[in-house]
Structure formats: C-alpha cells, structure tokens
Amino acid sequence: MLDLINATGPDAGGKAAPLAQLLQAGFNVPQGFVVPTDVYQTVAKNNGLTPGSTDDFADARARILDIQLPPRVVDDISKALEQLTQGAATDYVAVRSSSSSEDSTLASAAGQHDSFLAVRGVEQVCQAILQCWASLWSERAAAYRAHQPSHHPMDMAVLVQRFVDADASGMMFTGNTSVIEASLGLGERIVAGQLTPDSWRVAGAQIVDRRRGDQRQRIDRMGNMLQTRPILPGERTKACLTDHQVLRLDAMGQAVSTMLGGRRDIEWAIDGDTIWILQARPITSQLPDFSRPRRQAVDGSAVLTGDPASPGTASGPVRLICGPADFATVEAGDVIVCRTTDPAWTPLFSLAAAVITETGGVLSHAAIVAREVGIPAVLAVPRATELLRPTSVVTVDGTTGAITPVES
User: Fold this and answer.
1) Mean pLDDT of 336-345
2) Residue 111, pLDDT above cutoff 70
3) What are φ and ψ of residue 275, in 5° steps?
4) CATH classification of 2-162, choosing from 3.30.530.20, 3.30.70.360, 3.30.1490.20, 3.40.50.1970?
C-alpha cells in the first residue's frame, strides 16, 4: 500500500496522483492510502482477466466480485486502514476508484467508475475495492473508453481516505470566471445530476452571478448508514453557502490551479470551517459561454428553456427515458428527454443527438460527458418530460438553453 502523500506516478491512478501533490503542498486533502495498480494487475491476471480476455462484461464483473484477495494483500490493507483511522474523528472511510483512464487532460471518465462512502472495517473496505475494480468492466466504462482519442490501459488503483461528514458539498470549474455548484450534505446527488444545485459565478474575487437551485433532499451519514432525508421548506429559503464561503472556495480553487498548472475541475466538501479537496482533475471540455444572455425565445416560438450545459445545436425526435428499461428504445439521432441522467446512461450518448433533463447542474457527470462526446445538453428544464411529446421533433440549442419545435 502507498501512503497518499507519496502516491505519485501511474501506480496511483489519475485521481490519487494530483491529490498527493496537493497534500505535499499543504492543501486540505483527507489523509489516505492507495492500493496501487499492480495489485489489481496481479489479482486480475491470476484470475484470467486481462484486456481482451473476454467481451462478457457481466461475467468479468461477477468473477472479480467473487475473488478472495490474497492474505498478504488483506493484511497490508488492514494495517494501512488501522493507521489511517487512528486519531480520526470516525473510523469511516471513502473508497474511491483511481483508474489509469480517468482524470487525465484528455478524458475525465466522470462517473464511469464506482466509489463508495462511509465504509467501515477491513472486510467492507476489501469488498469496496473489488467493486471499484469490477466497475472497470462495466458497459458504461467500456462505452466511454471507446469514444476517447487515445487508448488507456485497463488498470485500476483504489484510493482509501478518511471520510468527511460534509455540511455542504459540490464542484467547481476554475478559470477567469469560476463556476461553483453546491448542495447540502454529501455530494452524491449533485455529481449524479439528481438535483439542481445552487450555483455561483466568481470573477476577480467578486460574485458576478448566482442562481438558486431546487434541493428537496440531502444525504448524510447517520450512524453506519447513508440516509436521504427531506430538506424542510424553511431550510430551502436560503442558499446552502454564504458569500464568504463562495469566495473562500474560489480562492482555494485558484491556488489549486496555480499549483497543478492549469484550470481544474474540483470536487470539494465543507465540514465546519474546513474546506476539503476531494478531487482535482484537468478540465477536459469548455462550458457554454455564460457571458451571453440566455435566450428566452426563437422568433417567439421557443417552448422551453433551461440551463445550457453542453454547446452546439441538434434536432431530432423526442425520446422519453424513465430508466434503464427504456434504453433499448433509443435510436440514432434521438433527443433524450428524462427527469435526470445517471453515469450508467453513458452508452446512450453515442446514439443521442442531444440530451434534455429536468434536474442537474452544468458540472454534473452527465453534463461533462455530454461535452466530451460533443452532443448538446440543456438541463434543469421544468416539466420537460410532461411538455415534450414523444411524437414531436425539437431543436436543442446547448449554447443558449433554448428548445424549439420543428414544424412538420
């Protein structure tokens, strides 16, 4: 096992390596250790799993999940875990994928591999490590890799860190104008696009724009469980971050960008007065130009508007998607319309002409993948699944957020 602060280079994977650099530089990164890629390579090879050895991803995942880790590996994990949790506020940890094909300058692999929060004890940690390895063989990860301009070996390191019981969490794209999105509690729902977050834009250490989201639930650790609970109406009347916190996040993001040598997509969490950095990967695709006014109509005929999340324009027939059971109905050139997306939906992005959702933020995993694949996306469109009929044809403008009917 590698102590996170020393876990640089390809053995640490794309997620852990920049966090190690930040930890070395004194940034607030939760302490952790890394199960390096060579452990995965050895275990996979010993069980007959190498790239190209099988096209049956379900079989490969099942075989990985059935593996008994070698006693030496379990012993090393147990010792590293004991050292990590000694003196910590709790003995819960986060177990996070850190593959060789994620968080690079060319590909984010946002949401394509699994991570697990509030894991406790060596048995649960070992099982979560196997699940991270197995996610390398998922259909969504394979579909994502097929769209990338360069080949990445199928290697997976796993990062185990102290767990942060967050008061608020979110993501940030740094730049001349930084974009910050946030929600109360843990950040699972915001990165998955399952809610519309509060958002801010900061330029020159000044807040230049702010938007309230629609947050009705939050996720927190309650004992040994992650629980989703409602946000009371009175709590929804104010933003989940103060202006002071927003400006602190922006200053931290600018410092991270300077340290790592370029604009960054940062996942963060706030616990009390401390801002923790959970991820800091290169930005692989540009956001729409937020300096342009949001278009409210096209020749008076725009029927819907939302948040522009992936630039470009495309037309196609509306295809309503409620969940995985509807995936087989999607045809090339369809405009996918759904309440929310999920990283498991990535294979659909190779067929769809555009994506429209009722919830989500422009920094969510689905929005990032849409930009990388190059299809327009408009998010946070109220009642989109009710107002867009399956028989209709629409034009989606992911640069302005307008959705217009195409006359037959």
Assistant:
1) 83
2) no
3) -100, 120
4) 3.30.1490.20
CATH superfamily of 304-405: Phosphohistidine domain (3.50.30.10)
CATH class of the region 168-282: alpha beta
Q: Among 113, 147, 151, 365, which one carries the catalytic annotation?
A: 365
Q: 92: closest CA among 65, 128, 64?
A: 128
Cα 33 to Cα 148: distance, rounded to the nearest angstrom: 29
- What pTM did the predictor assign? 0.88
Q: Can 365 be counted among the known catalytic residues?
A: yes
Question: With bands split at pLDDT 50, 70 and 90, how would you rate the model's confidence at 358?
Answer: very high
Question: What are the C-alpha distances in Å from 374 to residues 33, 171, 349, 370?
Answer: 36, 21, 9, 6
260-316 per-position pLDDT tens digit = 999 999 999 999 999 999 999 888 777 766 554 444 433 344 579 999 999 999 999
Q: Average pLDDT, stretch 313-321?
A: 95
Residue 29's nearest CA partner among 113, 91, 94 is 94
